[in-house]
UniProtKB/TrEMBL annotation:
UniProt-listed Pfam families: MFS_1
Transmembrane segments: 9-26, 46-65, 77-96, 102-121, 133-156, 162-186, 238-256, 262-284, 293-312, 318-340, 361-381, 387-410
GO molecular function: transmembrane transporter activity
Species whose genome carries this gene: Orchesella cincta
Membrane listed as a keyword: yes
Protein name (database record): Putative glycerol-3-phosphate transporter 3
Entry similarity comment: Belongs to the major facilitator superfamily. Organophosphate:Pi antiporter (OPA) (TC 2.A.1.4) family.
Domain Major facilitator superfamily (MFS) profile, chain residue ranges per copy: 12-416
Keywords per UniProt: Membrane, Sugar transport, Transmembrane, Transmembrane helix, Transport
GO cellular component: membrane
Subcellular location(s) of the protein: Membrane
Membrane topology: Multi-pass membrane protein
Amino acid sequence: MSSILKRNQMVVFATAWISYAVIYFLRKPIGIIKPVLESEFSLSKTDLGLMDVAFLLPYATIQVFGGHLGDKLGPRLTIALCLSIGGTAMFTFGAWNRYGLLLVTMFINGITQGPCWPAICKAVCAWYPDQQLNSVVGVLSTSVYIGGAAGTALAVHLQYYYGWRMVFLPSAVVAVALGVVVYCVMQSPEEKHITIPGKESMITTKIGDDVGNRRTFCQLWKIPAVPEVSMTVLCLKVVRYCMLLWLPIFLVHYLQYSVAQAGMFSTIFDVGGSLGSPLIGFILDRKFKKNTFLGMWLFVSISSISMALFAMTAKLGFFYNALFMLIAGASNGGADSLLAGSLSMKMGEANGMRSGAAVTGLINGVGTFGAVCEGPVVGYISDHYGWGAMLTLMIVLSAVSSLTMFRAMVVQRKADRYAIPHHGSSNSEDKVPLMS
């Protein structure tokens, strides 16, 4: 049984990791081709920011209000459909000659990518003991940054040799094919009739399961620390998406990098995230078993400090740029991935609520609403006040994320002390999911 379990864990984890990496191949290149789109379509910075909104607004909305799709349909079908539809949409991206059609394509891409992360977390976490989830999701989150870095490198190469219209084409074909693979292999322990040792909460869902008792948005929001964690993730994501979508053009205009140099340098943030996610997950499981929120607050604070140091040393050369961008990527990306991954999944699945994907989608989606505002806000600020003002905004938001994470830690400790019933119910199944 042990060998069968390990083989299934490996297959599901590898499929999930590759799937989410490919999703970033459909997301990251837009930041690389912005300078070319700006010139070819005569776009302002605000117009470029609206392209971010066209992707992020449906992405956030479907996570907040449709995160339960992974609970209702099951993660396997959810991921397969999203990959296939999103890949098909982005296959057409390079064929359009009108700005409006590019926005429509990005909208479809956003709405299909929204349910993927909650569903992928649910699929993977179902196969591992609860005490290993931070480490597992930390390693799973490397797909975000390795996929982002590889997607950037591929986009730079394709744009240089073939033009911007080709940057999404190969990735779109792979995404559609991968959707079929996911549906064939990503089965749950229940479907395989396998019991997971050390699994306190059953977090798998089959198509057709009764979900009539699923929590509403307001009920999920009342879970202690969910609002605070959501606000923390919101601030982290604004900073992260600014680096994801604006760092190349910032480096070109503010630090006089070439387009190719800026594109490749921007991968340093992704490299930091790929190192930070598993490292932070490992540290939390080993050193902060009884106070996960304290550990998260420390790493969020490091993210704030590193962003300030990056701004202070921006003009001092490549070494300082790379050093502090690497630290910022590790602490920001690692904290973001785990807060909207393993921690949110535990909160949603505790006490038999079976709402792991819904809570994960809620926290990640609320965070992404901040990234929705990021596009036009950064575009407006850079147009009217310069890139220095944009850096100041990133520092302030990083500091706010540290404060809200501290508040989440305080709220969680009070919930542990008093064990407040969830949304006023005395039913034992509705007690607050307490985090340790």
